Amino acid sequence: MATALGSPKEEQQCRIGGGGGGGAVQAIAMLGATAVTAQAAYRARRVPWDLTFVLFAYATLGLLFLCLSMYERLPPPEQEEENGDDDDDDGAVVRRRLKMAVWALSTALSVAFAWRVAAVMPAPALKAAVWGMTSTVVVAGFYVLFVYRPAAISSYSELDTCKEEETLPKLNQIL
């Protein structure tokens, strides 16, 4: 299979993170989150519920980053079919489990933050608004990850951002 980028290795690097720079961005993001968490944990050290919230949010965010990076490293579904990896569709099972983990972790973070924000809202209507927005985000996330299937896209490779010339006509067709 010939590609505009040259080798399949170059295409995979482009898909995973622009030549390997994605890992550095994630590491910097986690270092920033660690610094902010350490500062917040220090300030909350005398209030157990606040400290628990800070540590829960940090652990959940770390797990979310881990699941997302694992998902990004999976080959596209079409590539699994081309390589003959049809043993009970293990790639699809892993992909589905990682999607479930990402949704569960993002839901847990959303609910935790909504709980904290709603606790400081002065009016019941504002508390209801916070919970309503959080519920909308959770349900929309579930819909996008598990229910919605775009019909106009025939394969993941057509939406590969590294193939801009091939992608733009397909995206214009969708819009």
Overview of the molecule:
InterPro entries: DUF6490. Pfam families: DUF6490. The chain crosses the membrane at residues 51-71, 101-122, 128-148. With 175 residues, the protein is mostly helical. The protein has one domain (8-174). Helix content is 75%, strand content 0%. It has helices at residues 8-17, 22-43, 48-73, 77-83, 90-120, 124-147, 164-174. The chain starts with 7 loop residues before the first helix and ends with a helix.
Descriptors:
175 residues; mainly alpha; 7 helices
Please give the structural blueprint.
Layout: H1 8-17, H2 22-43, H3 48-73, H4 77-83, H5 90-120, H6 124-147, H7 164-174
Keywords: Membrane, Transmembrane, Transmembrane helix
Transmembrane segments: 51-71, 101-122, 128-148
Pfam families: DUF6490 (PF20100)
Stretches where pLDDT falls below 50 for ≥5 residues?
Answer: 1-7, 13-19
Alpha carbon gyration radius: 20 Å
Number of strands: 0
Q: Pairing-aware structural class of the strands and helices?
A: mainly alpha
**Helix content bin:** over 70%
The number of helices is: 7
Q: Kindly report how far apart the N and C termini lie.
A: 29 Å
Give the domain tally: 1
Give the DSSP E fraction (strand runs of 2 or more residues): under 5%
Q: Please, what is the average pLDDT?
A: 80
Q: What overall geometry do the principal axes of the alpha carbons give?
A: globular
Oligomeric state, counting identical vs distinct chains: single chain
SSE order, as H and E?
Answer: HHHHHHH
Question: Main β-sheet, in a few words?
Answer: none
